[in-house]
Design a protein that fits this description.
Blueprint (H helix, E strand, L loop, with lengths): L1 H31 L6 H19 L1 H5 L1 H28 L7 H23 L4 E2 L9 E4 L2 E4 H23 L1 H11 L1 H6 L4 H27 L1 E2 L3 H16 L4 H21 L5 H15 L14
Antiparallel strand pairs: 1-4, 2-3
Helix pairs in contact: 1-6, 1-9, 1-10, 1-11, 2-4, 2-5, 2-9, 2-10, 4-9, 6-7, 6-9, 7-9, 10-11, 10-12, 11-12
């Protein structure tokens, strides 16, 4: 029972990270019908920027662990969001009227560019985060010991996801995003700046991915320039699992995938962890191609 509970909490924490990355995929697809294959590398940029800012500015020493990490997260999200906007302007905006395949090829090229740029700047070896940032505290939850860091990561992920959903559903900008996702031509006729909406989407999605990269660095303690590829594929799987283009679906898909992966690694084999994740992708494409929540809000953000 304790093994199950430990793997469940670990899966929920990792699933929250997958969900944050998946939101970037699903928002871009909802508006542009484009799979941003460079999104995983924006996640990696967030992890490396977090390490750079953490070691160069000593935020946790100056502001304390809590406010230091919060300030670090804000800075990483802002910077990665700006990189996302630059990516859109350089790689996607010139291809708005081109065939969809052109944008897909551009996304793959941008992914290769980002990955190699990170390798040239930081090197190919693993980089280690400082180990004393997050509290190494174990608490009793339902009589079971659980590391506090897992709870903090899950709560942070849920807060970000709920805030994004409220932003999309309750604000004028969110209404504009949903209108652009439904019909860009009609949105323009209603006076909505669709290019501005796309810019906002390319800021929010990468910003959440950057926050997820920071979480991975703090949680696992090390980062590598290729990490965005596997995390990007997992998040893409989560987005499809929940229903691509559907924000609640990305949340559900990410957390569900994290739990399935963690339990599979514990009860089957850790060597099969990645295979289990992609087996889930294959099964969901065969059984329910629209995803778990795809029919209810299909083609919407």
């Amino acid at each position: 029972m304790e093994l199950f509970f430990q793997q469940l909490t670990n899966g929920l924490a990792v699933g929250g990270i997958y969900a944050l990355i998946a939101l970037g995929y699903t928002m871009v697809y909802g508006v542009l019908k484009l799979i941003n294959f460079a999104h995983g590398d924006l996640f990696t940029i967030g992890a490396y920027l977090g390490l750079t800012l953490l070691t160069s500015m000593s935020l946790t020493d100056r502001l304390g662990p809590t406010f230091g990490v919060l300030m670090l997260a804000v800075m990483v999200m802002m910077l990665v969001g700006l990189v996302g906007i630059l990516l859109d302007q350089a790689a996607y905006k010139p291809l708005r009227t081109s065939p969809r395949l052109s944008a897909v090829v551009s996304a793959l090229g941008a992914s290769i560019f980002f990955q190699n740029t990170i390798m040239l700047i930081y090197g190919a070896r693993f980089h280690v985060y400082p180990q004393d940032i997050l509290p190494n505290v174990v608490i009793n939850l339902f009589g079971m010991p659980v590391p506090l860091v897992r709870i903090l990561i899950l709560l942070t992920s849920v807060v970000m996801m709920v805030a994004l959903y409220a932003f999309i559903q309750k604000t004028k900008v969110g209404t504009a995003i949903r209108a652009a996702a439904e019909d860009q031509g009609a949105a323009r006729l209603m006076g909505i700046d669709v290019n501005g909406v796309i810019m906002i989407v390319f800021f929010i999605g990468p910003a959440l991915g950057g926050a997820a990269g920071l979480m991975v660095g703090l949680y696992y303690g090390q980062v590598n320039f290729t990490m965005g590829w596997i995390y990007g594929l997992k998040a893409f799987t989560a987005a499809i699992l929940g229903g691509i283009g559907n924000i609640p679906g990305a949340m559900v898909g990410g957390i569900l995938l994290g739990v399935i992966e963690a339990l599979g690694a514990a009860y089957i084999s850790i060597a099969w962890k990645d295979a289990i994740a992609f087996l889930v992708l294959i099964l969901i494409l065969i059984v329910r191609p629209t995803g778990l929540l795809g029919e209810r809000v299909a083609e919407k953000v």
